[in-house]
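Friendly challenge for the regulars: who can give me the structure tokens for this chain first? No prize, just bragging rights.
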Amino acid sequence: MPHIYSTSLEMILLLSEGGLFLTQLFFLFFLYNRLLHTTPNACTDSRDNIYPPISIILVTKDYGKILEKNLTTILKQDYPAFEVIVINDKSAGEDENILKRLHNQYNNLYYSFIPETARYISRKKLGIAMGIRASHNEWLIITEPNYAPTSNQWLKCMAKHFTQDTDIVLGYSNYLPTNHLFSRWITTDALFYHTRFLSMALAGHPYMGIGKNLAYRKSLYEKNNGFHNHLQLLLGEDDLFINSVSNKNNTKIAIESDSIVLLNRQPHTGGKKKKSEG
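First reply, four minutes later:
Bragging rights claimed.
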């Protein structure tokens, strides 16, 4: 009797492992493989009228030199018409001074701050909502201060997907590659994470986006009351919103090499400085 029970258990485990293996093969060859067969076209085009004006929105809090470096990269994009709106969330460091200095250099940079009285809600969502309200353009791109485009063609790569029937464009973001083992692990994890939701979008089942490289229409945001239904939640300004408004007809992906944004690992310089030792 114990022998029969042991054999049955082994068979169940074997069948379960086989089922999981076949499931992984299905995802690999029939879902993730879609990305491999998607051939990105060139992002540049001489007809500037195909590029609609864009509003880039980000929320900063004590990013310091990272903010200055990455924001400058964004402001130097090769694009006909765009504005950058930065919402400052009570930064204790030098973010305010950086924004003032860059504002004097670039007339398409605007900035404001989240009121200190704002409580019991997600300050990041509130900041993005403030930026969207202040924006002047139909197309919005949401990103973060510690991420930077890999090319000055970033906006053109995103905008080439802004067709009449498109409301959402999902972009790719990851970490700057290094030789450290942990860095390779989180970079690979981010790769598979993006592969899943981008492949699902290609298959006609979009379910999320990531607010590090994400574009959508302002009218879509306003029509669906923005983040109103989950403003009290700390997270979800990207995935919950996209999950509720995306469908197979209104969502596209941008996977061109010039459409990528990468994390700058340089530590924050804002806030209180560490006292020197000795």
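The radius of gyration is 22 Å. The chain has a mean pLDDT of 82. Your move, everyone else.
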